[in-house]
Design brief:
Helix content is 31%, strand content 27%. It has helices spanning 14-25, 60-69, 91-99, 132-146, and strands spanning 3-8, 28-32, 46-54, 57-58, 75-82, 103-111. The protein has one domain: Flavodoxin domain (Rossmann fold), CATH 3.40.50.360. It starts with a strand and ends with a helix. 39% of the residues are buried. The model has no long low-confidence stretch (mean pLDDT 97). It is globular and about 45 Å long. The structure holds flavin mononucleotide (FMN). Flavin mononucleotide (FMN) binds at residues 9-16, 52-56, 81-84, 112-114, 116.
């Protein structure tokens, strides 16, 4: 089974930390959505979409990438990091995925160091996150959904 992870991680590399840990343990192809807007995903059995949360949702680059490149009826999963936990962060990407009849096999989110806006005046929130435990949890999540 071939797996790709499409990621975008522009703030502090928080999401990249998670994605890199997974790619060290498993055979995955990493695709940087900042570099590629077109990519042939046909040969992958499952595709992960990974992003920091920016303005309440996944990066537009990741959502656009999904809209442009995801073939119909693929297995997909989500990885994301955020400053403050909320339930709605997946809404926009889920809507795009539904149009592709994607089969969602899981989602993993954790906190990530956040110095956006007023948080920079207090030295940021979620300092040190994702931490070792977050990374281990992400790897466990990946192993669970791909076994
Ligand atoms: C422009 C911008 C907007 C953000 N908006 C949110 C938000 O709406 N909710 C939230 O919890 N965190 C928000 N954050 C914090 C990021 O989601 C968090 O720091 C994340 O771990 C960044 O991931 P990255 O380092 O992979 O880019 C925002 C950060 C930036 C830079």
């Amino acid at each position: 089974m071939k797996t790709a992870i499409v990621y975008y991680s522009m703030h502090h590399g928080n999401t990249k930390k998670i994605v890199d840990a997974i790619s060290k343990k498993a055979d995955v192809t990493l695709i940087d959505a900042a570099k590629y807007s077109e990519y042939d995903l046909c040969c992958f059995d499952r595709i992960g979409f990974a992003s920091g949360i920016y303005f309440q949702k996944f990066s537009e680059k990741v959502i656009d990438f999904l809209e442009q490149n995801l073939p119909d009826s693929k297995e997909i999963f989500y990885l994301y990091t955020y400053g403050i936990k909320r339930k709605s962060y997946l809404d926009a990407i889920e809507e795009a995925a539904k149009k592709k009849h994607a089969i969602v096999i899981g989602a993993f989110g954790c906190r990530g160091f956040d110095t956006f806006g007023p948080f920079k005046w207090i030295g940021g929130i979620a300092k040190g996150r994702p931490d070792q435990k977050d990374v281990e949890n992400a790897v466990c999540f990946f192993e669970e959904i791909t076994k």
